[in-house]
Amino acid sequence: VRRRRQDDPSIPGCSFYETFNLSGREEVLPVGIYNLLLHANIVVYSYYYMLDPKVATYVSNDFPKNTVVIFDEAHNIDNVCIESMSCVISRRALDRCNQGIEKLVSRVAEVKQNDAARLQQEYNRLVQGLREANAARETDTVLANPTVPGSLRSADSFISFLRRLLEYVKLRLRVAHVVHETPVAFLKDCLEKVCIDRRPLRSCAERLQSMLDTLEFADLGPFSGLTLLCNFGTLVSTYTKGFCVIIEPFDERAPTVVNPILYFHCMDASFAIRPVFERYTSVILTSGTLSPLDMYPRILNFHPVNSASLTMTLARNCICPMVGHPRLTSLFLNMAFASKLHFSLLSPWD
């Protein structure tokens, strides 16, 4: 049919596969693909769709409780848990926040002039409780907060809140030495400097998403910095234990260039996977190199119902060669493909 339609455009056709291939090249999934997850018997995706609360809230929330969750090759699942609950904010990301705020201001002014009822409807939804229906269900709502504070409900008030939060983080990045503090100390200093309380911080990620949906932006790329800033505000105000805030004046990739970076680091991998254990009745972890077996229950803070170790035999003696690097031998050799471009490590991928 496709070949005939190329010669005769009047022949009816289906553009699903063309759209699917185009979306794959542009790294954007086809429209409505997430709705098909509820009709599938088996869903295969990355750990982050289940463990990262910023993604799981929109992708994995509607799976039933009797879903069997299998983390295959889970020997590095603790690293994924820690990474999904951590944030890294650089000066470049804060510059993007300024651009995002200006776009919000101009878009809000345009909507007020042409369609003010849209902002009023959003305000009414927030007053009534934007997520009352979702809060009634048992979901992985780590970033969700059903009641948005009054100081964030109007668009102008929320934009003013974003400006204050952005200026505070910029102020904290003006350091000449390494700063290490707890989330409680960070929130206390934020309250004293810019009068931002813990409660509006917990709702800022949800409020930003609501505003972006209401203003109907076609391209959300310019708001990546704001999304990162709001996610950081929600995480730092939600978790007071098991996390730390580290501010370094130099980037580890260029230790001689002043480039301050703020790290919100998770030190307990169990925070990310705990909602999965609490919601689903069957969770299975498999790995060919998971040893010893009693180590991961301690790291992830759970009590396994069944655990089994299967012996492995090789049909023949295998040769495992190690390829050395012909260049400087005083540098570390790293097998990770992700670190192949790191200047201080040698990689066999070179």
From TrEMBL:
GO cellular component, one term: nucleus
EC number(s) from the headed UniProt entry: 5.6.2.3
Requisite cofactors: [4Fe-4S] cluster
Classification lineage: Eukaryota, Metazoa, Spiralia, Lophotrochozoa, Platyhelminthes
Reaction(s) the record says it catalyses: ATP + H2O = ADP + phosphate + H(+)
Keywords assigned: 4Fe-4S, ATP-binding, DNA damage, DNA repair, DNA-binding, Hydrolase, Iron, Iron-sulfur, Metal-binding, Nucleotide-binding
Segments forming domain Helicase ATP-binding: 1-123
Residue ranges of coiled coil: none
Pfam families (UniProt xref): DEAD_2, HBB
BP GO annotations: DNA repair; positive regulation of mitotic recombination; transcription by RNA polymerase II
GO molecular function: 4 iron, 4 sulfur cluster binding; 5'-3' DNA helicase activity; ATP binding; damaged DNA binding; hydrolase activity
Family matches, as InterPro entries: DinG/Rad3-like (IPR045028), HBB (IPR010643), Helic_SF1/SF2_ATP-bd_DinG/Rad3 (IPR014013), P-loop_NTPase (IPR027417), RAD3-like_helicase_DEAD (IPR010614), Rad3/Chl1-like (IPR013020)
Protein name stated in the entry: DNA 5'-3' helicase
